[in-house]
Amino acid sequence: MREVDAVIAARLDSGVPLVAQVCSYIISAGGKRLRPALLLLVSGALEVRSAQRFNLAAVVEFIHTATLLHDDVVDESTLRRGRPTANHHFGNPASVLVGDFLYSRAFQMMLDARDMRVMEILAEATNVIAEGEVLQLMNMHDASLDEASYLRVIRSKTAKLFEASTRLAAILAGSPPDVEQACADYGQALGTAFQVIDDVLDYDGDAAEMGKNLGDDLREGKATLPLIAAMHRASPSERDLIRRAIEEGSQDELDAIVDIVRKTGALDVAREAAAQEARRAMDCVSLLPRNEYSEGLLQLASSLLARRH
């Protein structure tokens, strides 16, 4: 990860001061670096030694960071990773344009791999993520959204870059098709579980630990799995309350809605959905060589369910 951070620092260099300021602001905020870590773990499991793994790990982090910059503008978010979002600090125009810079820099960097398969995977992932963002925008304030539609969004918007990260490591290793698919499936399952747990924490987390405001999903009119499950199990009057809050994007009844989500067992339903995805990810590891890196992949999937931020 130190090698990846060195690549990130070197490739963020720009002659435009505002680009450097915004990039430095969001990158220095830290974050989990989960996608590049996944690429490195799978590379280790498959005994990839090429320095290209560091370059591609930085590429997926740049793509992820670009989506965060654009997301926060679309969602009108004000807090991320415990401090004001870039759009809140620098304004929406700067955030959108620097997000574009990160996308274009990522595409410059992926050329270094000189591998059309690498280009194909990352180009497709970036396109699917953009489609997922638009799909989520279309679903805003739609209280009739079902679990299948919800999963379609998060598998596009979140899990796709996880999937690309793990598949890229298999491509670098020259793995056979079944191993490459197992790596991709691991990433998709882990990314899906990660997002479901993230949505759970919007109703069951600690704002200080998470570094963002609780109830943001409700304010944005997002019908996430905890709300979908709660509406299936709530009384008619409670269902109406949740429906109005989603349609209006209102946090006025947030405490009451959190109480409904908790007492109906909706959080348990969502956590079990995440657990199923985590188990699916762990099953995929059986096709990889047994070493400390594949053991790390198992531990990561297992520990994901206990995350609090």
Topology (SSEs and partners):
Blueprint: H1 2-11, H2 17-27, H3 34-45, H4 52-75, E1 79-80, E2 83-84, H5 86-90, H6 92-110, H7 116-139, H8 147-157, H9 159-173, H10 177-204, H11 207-210, H12 216-219, H13 225-233, H14 236-248, H15 254-263, H16 266-284, H17 292-304
Antiparallel strand pairs: 1-2
Helix pairs in contact: 1-4, 2-6, 3-4, 3-9, 3-17, 4-6, 4-7, 4-9, 7-8, 7-9, 9-10, 10-16, 13-14, 13-16, 16-17
Rg is 19 Å
How helical, in percent, are the residues? over 70%
Would you report the number of β strands? 2
Q: Which CATH class is shown?
A: Mainly Alpha
Q: How many angstroms separate the termini? A: 21 Å
Number of alpha- plus pi-helical segments? 17
Instruction: Name the structural class.
Output: mainly alpha
Q: CATH homologous superfamily, by name?
A: Farnesyl Diphosphate Synthase
Strand content: under 5%
Counted up, domains total 1
List SSEs in N-to-C order.
HHHHEEHHHHHHHHHHHHH
CATH topology: Farnesyl Diphosphate Synthase
- Average pLDDT works out at 92
Q: Which parts are unreliable, with pLDDT below 50 for 5 consecutive residues or more?
A: none
Most strands sheet: 2 strands, antiparallel
Q: Looking across the biggest beta sheet, what order are the strands in?
A: 1-2
- By CATH, the architecture is named Orthogonal Bundle
Overall geometric form: globular
